[in-house]
Amino acid sequence: xxxxxxxSKTYPGxxxxxxxxxxxxxGEVVGLIGENGAGKSTLMxxxxxxxxxxxxxxxxxxxxxxxxxxxxxxxxxxxxxxQELNLFExxxxxxxxxxxxxxxxxxxxxxxxxxAMIAQVQPILARLGADFAPDAPLAELSLAQMQLVEIxxxxxxxxxxxxxxxxxxxxxLSETERLLRVIAELKAGGVGIVFISHRLHExxxxxxxxxxxxxxxxVGTLVGARIQHEEMIRLMIGRDLRSLYxxxxxxxxxxxxxxxxxxxxxxxxxxxSLTVRRGEIVGLAGLVxxxxxxxxxxxxxxxxxxxxxxxxxxxxxxxxxxxxxxxQGLYLVPEDRKRSxxxxxxxxxxxxxxxxxxxxxxxxxxxxxxEADRAESQKRSLGIRAPGVATPVKxxxxxxxxxxxxxxxxxxxxxxxxxxxxxxxxxxxxxxxIYALMRQLADGGVAIIMISSDMxxxxxxxxxIVVMHEGAVxxxxxxxxxxxxxxxxxAVGKTIAAERAAAGSAA
Amino acid sequence: xxxxxxGLLLLILIVGTIVxxxxxxxxxxxxxxxxxxxxxxxxxxxxxxxxxxxxGGIELSVGSIIALLGVVFIDLIANxxxxxxxxxxxxxxxGILMGMVHGLLVTKLGMQxxxxxxxxxxxxxxxxxxxxxxxxxxxxxxxxxxxxxxxTAGRSFGVPHSTIAFAIxxxxxxxxxxxxxxxxxxxxxxxxxxxxxxxxxRTDRITIAAYVICCGLTAFASIFIAxxxxxxxxxxxxxxxxLYAIAAAVLGGCSLRGGEGSILGVVLGTILLQxxxxxxxxxxIPSSLNFAVMGGVILIGVLADQQLVAYRQRGGAPRAxxxxxxxxx
Amino acid sequence: MKxxxxxxxxxxxxLSVGAANAQEKKSLAFVVNGASDFWKIAEAGVKKAQxxxxxxxxxxxxxxxxxxxIQQRLMDDLVAAGTDAIMVSAVDPKTxxxxxxxxxxxxxxxxxxxxxxxxxxxxxxxxxxxxLGKDAGGLIKKALPNGGKCVGFVGLPGADNARERxxxxxxxxxxxxxxxxxxxxxxxxxxxxxxxVEDTLAKSxxxxxxxGIYSYNTPRIYEVLKEAGxxxxxxxxxxxxxPITLGGVKEGTISGTVVQNPYEWGYKGMKLMAAxxxxxxxxxxxxxxxxxxxxxxxxxxxxxxxxxLKSRIAGK
Lengths: 507, 329, 316
Fold this sequence. Notes:
Structural class of chain C: alpha/beta
CATH topology of the largest domain in chain C: Rossmann fold
Helix content of chain C: 40-55%
Oligomer: heterotrimer
Order of helices and strands of chain C: HEHEHEHEEHEHEHEHEHEHEEH
CATH architecture of the largest domain in chain A: 3-Layer(aba) Sandwich
Number of helices of chain A: 18
Structural class of chain A: alpha/beta
CATH architecture of the largest domain in chain C: 3-Layer(aba) Sandwich
Largest sheet of chain A: 6 strands, mixed
Number of domains of chain C: 2
Number of helices of chain C: 11
Strand content of chain C: 15-25%
Strand content of chain A: 25-35%
CATH class of the largest domain in chain A: Alpha Beta
Radius of gyration of chain C: 20 Å
Number of domains of chain A: 2
Radius of gyration of chain A: 24 Å
CATH class of the largest domain in chain C: Alpha Beta
Strand order of the largest sheet of chain A: 6-9-10-3-11-12
Helix content of chain A: 25-40%
Distance between the termini of chain C: 39 Å
C-alpha cells in the first residue's frame, strides 16, 4: 500500500537520505532502525508530508506522488504516534480521540454530541483492549494509556498505516507487552505498521521485516528469522556487538550509601531500604510508577522524605534540599534531561559550573576564565562533542547533553550517584560511552544506583539488581540470577526461588 | 545580547537625530539635562523590574509602591518631622519588607506573581489614599530640606543627581547580574527553575531576593520621584509606572518568560522611552497621543528585533543542517 | 484592563458598604470626579450643611479613578444602596447624558463643577468655567500689558472644565496682543505635569507666560521656573487655591489665581437637595443654572482669602 522508490533528500551540505527504498504492505509490521542521525526522522517527515524529497517517487494506495502534502498523508490513511505525545491533558479520552472532528448537533450552535462521541470511541478502545473509559480525564491516565489514546486517535481516523515512533521508550515492561499485543491485533486487522525503536528485542519480537538505515542509506533488510539482535546492531553501527557488561576492576568495597526505611509521598505507607557499596552499580528495576523516581527525588532532597534515614560512608546525613545532597557528594542524573538535567539555553560551561559556582568565584564574582578551564577539561575527559564550552546545550545531541549532566557532577567529588533512566532517547554509540563512564566512576570508588526500564540496560550494566514493586523493594538479584524472566516476575510482585540467596548476601 | 543592545542604541540615535533635525532645541543643555533627570527617575525602578522579570515573574505594584512610599516619605519629613535620613531608611525598609512578602507568597505559597503583585497594586494604592484621606501630600509653601533636595533633585555641572544615582545603581546591578554568582543563579532560575533546583540552587531564596531587590530599589526611586514632584496625589501618583518599567525592560531585551535580559538593555530601553516623551512635547504632538507614540515605537522595536533574530537564524540554517535528525528523534 | 479590574473590585466594595448602611435617615451623596484637595473644601461645605441637616446623612464620594465609567458605576451603586439624591461633578458630562438620565430617573440629580445641560438633571450649582477662564484671561492681559505668548498646562485637555476654561481664556484674550499658543496635557500625572513645563521651557525659552489650568499645574510651573531662575520673568497665572499657588501670589511671583467656591457648592447643593426632597422646589431657577461666581485672587487680597479658607476648613 505504501511504496517509496529511490527517495533522496539533501540539505545544503548534507545528504540526509540517499536513494532509499521503503515499502509497507497491509498487515505487515516493518521495523525501522538506525542510530540517531541515520535518517529515520527525515524519512518519517517525508511520509507525513512535512518535508518534500529532493528526488524519488512515492506510491500511496496506488497513486503516484512527487511529494506528499500533510493532507495527502492523512487522506492516504497514514497516522503517526510520536514519542512525545500530542494530547490535551485538559480533555477526556473521547475528546482527544475525536479532536477537531467532534460529532455536532444544534445546527449553527455547533454543540458537541457527547453521547455520540462516547459511542464512537468505545468500540475503538475495546479493540485496543484499553482498561479505561472514553470519558476518563486524560490527566488521570498513565503514559502507556495515553499512548493507547494516540493509537485510538489514529484508528478513529481510519488509518491504514500507523507509524509508531519510539513507542516503548517510556513504557514499563508489562505495558510494553500490552502494546506488542495491540500491534499484533492491528496487524491482524490488516493495518500496516512502521515500528521505530532503539529497543531491539522488541523489534525482534514484533516485526515481520526490519529496514536498517545508516548515514541516510538502507544498509540492510532483515526478514523473519534473520531479525536478530546482533545482526541488527552490526548493521546499525557497522561493527559487531560487544557485550554491554564491563566487569569491575575489583570487588565492591565497604557500604557507601545506605537508604534506611525511606518513605515518599507516592507510597506513604511503604518504606524502602537498600545499600550500595563503593564500586558497585546497582540496577533499580521495576514498573513505571513503582516509586523509583520518587525515591531518587527524595534521597536527593527534591521532595520531602516522610520517614527514614540516609547514611553516607557510615555517617548519618540530613538532607532537606538538593543543596544538602550535593554538599554531601550525593548526586542525581534526573530522568527528564531537558526539564531537570540541563539548562538547555545556557552554555556548556555555565551548566557544568552551576552546582559548584562558588569554586569558580572570588568574592561573589564569577571568574569566567577558571569556569571555562574547568568546563574545558571536563569536555575533554568525557568526550563531549561540541565546538566549544560556550556552545549552548540545546545544540548538542541527546547523548552529549547527558554527558554535560554527568560533567556537572564529575567536576565535583561524587561519593554516590543516582542515574534515572540515563540513556533514554540516546543512540547506541553514546549509550556505550555512558556505560563505560559509569563503570569508570564505580571503579574510582563511587556507589552507583541506576534506575532503568530498559531490560537490556538493567541486565547488561548492573552488578546487582534491586527490583521495586508498588513502593517497596520486591527482590534482589545477583549477577548469576539475572534474566528478563526474573526481573519481570519481581517487578509484578511475584517471588522467585533464586531470590533468597541474593537477598541474604545483600543484607 | 550585545547585538540586541546595539540595535536599540541605533534606534535611539535615529529617533534622536530626527527630533534634533526638526527641533534643534532637543540637544540644548537644559533639555538634555531635564531628560536625563527623568531617565534617572524612571530608570531606577525599571532596573528593579528587570530583576523580577528575569526571575520569570512580574511586579505590577511598582506604581502603587511609588505612591504609597512617596506619601509616607513626605508625611514623615514634612508633617511628622522625622529627620530625612531616618525617613529614607524607613521607606527603603518598608520596600524591602514588601518585596519579602511578595517573594514569600510567590515561592512558599506558590501563588502566581501576576496575582500577588496585582493585589499589591490594589492594596498599596488603597492604603496610600487612605493614609492621606485622598488629600495631596506635599510641602507647605517655602518648606525646604536643602541637603535632601540637593541630593535628590539637585544638579552638578548640569547633570541631575537622579541620573548619577541611576548610573551608579545600574553599574552595581550590572556587576551583580552579569558577573556575580547570584546573577548567574537568577538567570538559571528564570530559564528553568526545576533544572536549577536539580543543580543545587536554593531557587526560593533567589526568587525572593529578586523581589526584595525590586521593591527595595523601587522604594529608593519613590523618594527621588517624590522629591521631584514635591506633591503627591495618592490616587494618581505613579499610575501605570509599572507599565513604563515593564516596557523599558521588554524593549531592553528581557523576556517575559524569564531568564533573559541585560542591564545595558534596560538602561537603553528607559532612555528610548523618555526620549519619546520628550519628543511629544518638543515636536508639539498633541499630548493625548503620548501613549500611542510610545506603544507604537515599542511595538516596532520589539518586532524589528524579533524579525532580525529570525532572519539571522534563517541565514544560519545551512550550517545547522548536518544533523537534521537531531531536530526530532 | 487594570481599570476594569479596579472598577469591578470597587463595585463589590461599594455594594457591600451600601448594603450595610441602615436606611433610617435619608441620605444625600456628593459624587466628585476624582480625588483632589479641591474637594476637601467642598467637603467642609458638606459638613457645614450636615450640621444644619440632622435628619439627613450626607456623604462625599470619590471614584477610584477619573473615568466616566467608574464614576457611573459608583452612582449606580449608590442608587442601588438607597441614596435619595445625588449631586455629581461628572467626569465627562457631554457623553454621559444617557447615563446621567438613567440616574435622574431614579433619584433627584444635580450637577456641579461641570454641567450636563442636555441631561435630565434638576439643576446645576457651580461656577461657569467659561467665566472663570475669562477672569484668568483678564489676569493675563493685566500681567502682559505689551502682549506676548502663553502656554497652558492642564490634566485632561478633553475634559469639559478644561475646554471651557481654555475657551474663556481665549475669549478674553481675543483682540489683545496676548496669544495662547499651546496647551499641554498630562493625564493627571504629576511627573508628566512637571516635565511638560520643563520641555516647554526648553522648546521655547522666550515664552512670556504660563497658565496652570488644573489646580496642581500652577505649583508645578512655579517649581520649574524657580529651579530655572525664571520666576518673575515668565508670568504665572493659575486657577484654584493650592497652598503653593497662594504662596506664590503672596510672594508676587504668581500674578494671580482664579478660585472657585466649592465650599458654597457643597453647602448650597446639599441644602438645596434636602429642600427638594422635602417638596420645596423654589430654589431651582427656570434655566436650571445656579452660578456661584469665582473670585480673582491677587497679591492685594490673598491674605484675606487664605484666612477665610482656613477658617472654613477648620470650622467644619
